[in-house]
Write a structure and sequence with these properties.
Number of helices: 9
Distance between the termini: 37 Å
Strand order of the largest sheet: 1-2-6-3-7-19
Helix content: 25-40%
Radius of gyration: 24 Å
Strand content: 15-25%
Number of strands: 20
Oligomer: single chain
Order of helices and strands: HHEEEEEHEHEEEEEHEEEEHEEHEHEEH
Largest sheet: 6 strands, mixed
Low-confidence stretches: none
Structural class: alpha+beta
């Protein structure tokens, strides 16, 4: 018979909560959390098509406060006919839960709620537990966790430690904790030249030639040697477009996009200054639109991280690596108010067709989260 966590994960997957719609997922969580004594607060931000619903829940009001953060929104399913099981069916087959969000990260949310349910029924701790659940992590992240953090600061709801349930494990449950993330800086660079016939290039000014020189520092480059916490910063061009349908015309302009994933050896402002000085040396007409969507952060090893590693080891027998690899997550916002780490299910299939997780891993994750709660409150007493 399926456990409470697996049944809850199935119900969550069945909610078609593609960003920014919660599609009943937050209603379900609010109902379940209220049953076990959490006080729930819905936090909608934005308006119209950009309106995002979020959920903050807290059990008791005392200190210390342990927080769990996650997102119920998912990426689109793509071609639903290509799935072996319906992407929002929540089907369990051959020991696996299939569906969009099973790995990223409804399975982890269900596991934590199950762990909290077990813990609050036996705990005599004077402390408290908070849940920070957003519906805007897979999108632009304007009206989700970033706004919830502002609300939490204004309402004195500051945790002592937070786990984000992202699917951090690469191959097997217990192999990796994320203790930091790189920053992300994107640019849309437009270079203008002079249109002309390709047979008479001396009468034109090809902006592509200028663009190639301008992109040299970010075209598949490592920007540093990394440091004790991070791999080298990397920069890559992602698109180049002239909008030119003809093969015999030198275009009037060209636009390129590139992204830099950078570690703590850099900051966004200095990267922009460095590149704009380089662009000016090329000697052409250009404009750049920058988007600094994340700054790098690291949670140094402390007793919270040690407690999480020990909890994982007790349940799985593994000692997880501490990593800062991968993309961005909402931990980049939470780090502003408390130490944060990420640990969830195995992420090999996230965002893919037939996304799935082992149901045994969900049950094991419940045990890990519960063990972490026990250790957290024992240490903090």
């Amino acid at each position: 018979m399926s456990s409470y966590a697996i049944k809850l994960a199935q119900e969550l997957v069945r909610c078609r909560s593609v960003t920014p719609y919660e599609a009943g997922a937050l209603d379900l969580l609010e109902s379940e959390l209220t049953k076990i004594g959490f006080v729930c607060t819905r936090l909608p931000f934005g308006s119209g098509d950009q309106r995002v619903d979020n959920l903050f829940a807290r059990w008791r009001a005392g200190k210390p406060n342990f927080a769990f953060a996650g997102h119920v929104d998912v990426v689109p399913s793509g071609d639903e006919e290509a799935w072996a099981h319906k992407p929002f069916g929540g089907v369990v087959n051959s020991g696996k839960l299939f569906g969009r969000g099973a790995a990223d990260m409804k399975g982890a949310i269900a596991a934590f709620l199950a762990a909290a349910n077990d813990f609050v029924n036996v705990s005599s701790s004077p402390g408290s537990i908070s849940l920070i659940i957003t519906g805007d992590e897979e999108g632009v992240a304007e009206f989700g966790t970033v706004k919830m953090i502002e609300w939490m600061i204004a309402n004195n709801q500051i945790p002592d430690f937070c786990i984000v349930g992202e699917p951090t494990n690469q191959e097997i449950l217990g192999d990796m904790i994320k203790t930091g993330r790189r920053g992300s800086l994107s640019c849309q660079l437009c270079v203008r030249g002079k249109q002309g016939h390709v047979a008479y290039p001396h009468l034109a000014d090809n902006p592509i030639n200028h663009l190639f020189n301008m992109l040299a520092p970010v075209n598949g480059k490592e920007l540093d040697n990394g440091n004790v916490y991070f791999d080298p910063s990397t920069a890559n061009v992602t698109t180049i477009d002239t909008g030119n349908p003809s093969g015999n015309i030198i275009p009037n302009s060209v636009t390129a996009k590139f992204n830099i994933r950078f570690n703590t050896e850099h900051n966004g402002g200095k990267l922009i200054d460095w590149l704009e000085k380089h662009f000016n040396t090329v000697g052409c007409d250009w404009t750049a639109n920058w988007n600094l969507s994340a700054i790098p952060f690291i949670t140094p090893t402390n007793h919270y991280i040690d407690g999480l590693r020990d909890s994982i080891n007790v349940v799985t027998g593994k000692t997880p690596a501490l990593s800062t690899s991968g993309g961005t997550s909402d931990a980049r916002f939470i780090t502003k108010i408390c130490p944060v780490a990420e640990f969830g299910l195995v992420g090999k299939t996230m965002h893919k067709i037939d996304e799935n997780v082992d149901v045994d891993d969900i049950d094991a994750l419940v045990k890990i989260y519960k063990e972490m709660l026990v250790r957290f409150f024992k240490v903090e007493q």
